[in-house]
Amino acid sequence: MVALSRKKSRHSILGQSGVWRLLVSLTVCVVGLISGLSAQEHRAAPAQPSIVIAQAQSFLAAGNPAAAIQVLSSHLHEHPKDTSARLLLADTYVSTKENGQAEDQYEAILKLAPDNYRALAGLGELYDRAGNSEKAEPMLARAATLSHGAPKIKTAWAAVLARQHRYKDASRALAGIAPPGSPEERISFHRLKASVAAGLGDAATAASEMENALALSPDQPGLQMATAAAEIQAKNWQRSANLAGPLFSKTRDPGLGFMLLEAQLGSGDDIRPTLETLRKVTLPEQQEVLFRRRMAELLISHERFSESVDELKRAVVLEPSRGDLEFNLALAQFKSGRFDDALASATSLQKTADSAELESLIADIQEARGDNLAAVRSYQAAIALAPNEEKYRLALALDLIQHKSFEPARVVLKQAEELHPESWRVRVASGMVEYFAGSAEDATKKLLKAADVASEPEPALRYLGDIQMDQTGTPDPAALSRLCEYGDAQPNAGKLQFYCAALFFRRDYLANDRSHTDEILRRLKAAAKKTPNDASPRCQLGKAYRWIERWQEALGESETCARLDPNSADAHYRLAQIYQHLGQQQRSEQEMKLYQAASARLADENARRDETIKTFLYSIQKDSKN
User: Which domains does the chain have, with CATH numbers?
Assistant: First the structure.
């Protein structure tokens, strides 16, 4: 089991919700299809069968394969080149599970007739049954070609390809093949198609094929279980629960219980009865450890941290030497808000197996408990244990930023920049420290550099755009150029297009330069189209139209702005001016009252900065997960 450690984020648990599917996985189930390559399929079918073949077939029909083997063997002793008789003999040996004898016969046929596709298919079948898909696949591929696409041979070939995880090739082999006639073969055929679809990541088709198989034998528990698993993969939670629930009630099988639990977690149903029943399952100690761990993983993957704690506690009791389990317990307790319990679990582990990851978790716990100094000490301990890992220095810097300790944060981030010059996250944090400390100019330079070193610059450019929008003066030329360059190159980056257009407008508005109004309006309209629920582009359009005295358009955009953002004091003030210009005095006065009310709700500068810091800390931690 991989520990549920925070490898991607300081606040994420990497649960393995799919591990339990090994119990009910959609493996390639094609026994019916391959065994369908029966004597009738393999042997030659002359218009008038020889007397010997007819006699052997009569013995086989009577259930006496030994007599058939004797007759055919005697005949082949005198007529060793009779491939029809030898094919029937090989098939008979297959039916009596004398695979070595069958293999000898198929090989003898291929020495006489290398292109005999029935012998190739039969030999491929034997290799496949023996688990040697590497030898089986080329034989079945050649047999499929020589037979001009005989359905059963192509299906058997597809099954081997699927077992080799060559799902695209298997899908091509199955293309155009109609389901076979007998119900048993049809079931295997649909299961094979479901397995191939699942391998290709097409969960909906996999579930549909399993439903096709289940329809042929609706009371078969194995099919019900496999179909329920496929429906979970397709996120058809209720259908999966409907299939798994009755099976679990009858069998109390843990695998089915896991399946039902996941379906209920996905659908939002009450999981308590299922969880209670699963917790009463009695298993040998070694199996119980795995059972508890997997149940915890499943709960954690759906962010049910509180429910996972009991499972992890039991797992720790059963395997006290497993530090990863105790770490996961502390992390689950932390995530469920049980900070004192989390600290107790983490400090217990610290005595025997300290690590940077553990110290960082303890720091997070201490921060949540309100002990800021202890949190800083633990972040520093994490750095000491893993001095070359970026995330621990960044975690300490973010904690210092949260408490407005900007100078210490600068020191930490400077060290991080020296160690990780290509880290855009470190450079973004460094830039935001400068901004919070009052230097928008230095912040802009650092954020531009962050965008330069990032493989995907959009997150860094969003921070840059926010800072530029927060200023009242002329935008930084380099920032404006970089934002517009990215927005032009990425037509779906609506937010970046907005930053470009709005800053372009502010630059020209402050300079009273109306020579670029058409371009500004075009850019703002494009941004509004890409972000229809964002008030900002519509608000800027209202300002722009008012500036060039296109009053009706200014009115329409400003009304939309106020509708999308009713708390915008600026929107109400602008509407009051527009209504006054249009001679609608009563509406102007109404908007002035709304403006005054919205202005009274505006936070002071310190509160606004606190909110900006909070937003930044949330967003950079979210970006760090990607």
Answer: 23-164 (1.25.40.10)
